């Protein structure tokens, strides 16, 4: 038995207790409860999402450029600039969007870090207007998915009452 104890790592004195380095590594992290969004942020984001629609994004937040598209289409592709590129300056957009959505937008596949913009392209249609609408719908879907992934659904009072009754029944069963 003494031989087995000799293979254990040396104990360290931490806060008046002796612990092994393994225990220190395993239990040293304490998650901070304030890391998540606050209730005020949740309510503000929920209200913003309720009033948000596909046509509520002002034109001053983005700029549209057109370029020649690639792929099938014959001579039309070579002559007409139908591919639409929408660049959304995050410096203009983020003050309007709730704070808890910012990180999700910066983690999106459309984010260009060097220019701090969202770059959305579409060349699905043979018409410029169709491609611009497709870009706008992608931007709308991005903002909506960011909101749905971060904002918790509001819990109704009936649901809370149901959970409380189930909790009481579970306690009585013990």
UniProtKB/TrEMBL annotation:
Residues 56-154 form the Prokaryotic-type class I peptide chain release factors domain. GO terms for molecular function: peptidyl-tRNA hydrolase activity; translation release factor activity, codon nonspecific. GO terms for biological process: mitochondrial translational termination. It holds the Pfam family RF-1. GO terms for cellular component: mitochondrial large ribosomal subunit. It comes from Lasallia pustulata. This is Peptide chain release factor class I/class II. Coiled coil: none annotated.
């Amino acid at each position: 038995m003494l031989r087995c104890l000799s293979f254990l790592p040396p104990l360290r004195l931490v806060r008046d207790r002796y612990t092994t380095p393994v225990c220190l590594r395993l239990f040293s992290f304490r998650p901070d409860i304030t890391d998540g969004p606050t209730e005020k942020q949740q309510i503000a984001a929920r209200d913003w999402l309720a009033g948000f629609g596909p046509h509520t994004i002002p034109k001053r937040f983005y700029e549209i450029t057109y370029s020649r598209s690639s792929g099938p289409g014959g001579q039309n592709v070579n002559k007409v600039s139908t591919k639409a590129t929408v660049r959304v300056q995050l410096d203009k957009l983020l003050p309007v969007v709730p704070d808890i959505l910012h990180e999700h937008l910066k983690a999106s596949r459309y984010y260009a870090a060097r220019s701090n913009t969202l770059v959305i392209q579409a060349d699905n249609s043979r018409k410029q207007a169709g491609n611009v609408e497709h870009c706008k719908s992608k931007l709308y879907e991005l903002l909506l998915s960011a909101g749905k992934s971060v904002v918790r659904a509001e819990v109704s009072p009936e649901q809370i009452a149901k959970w409380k009754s189930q909790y009481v029944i579970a306690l009585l069963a013990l």
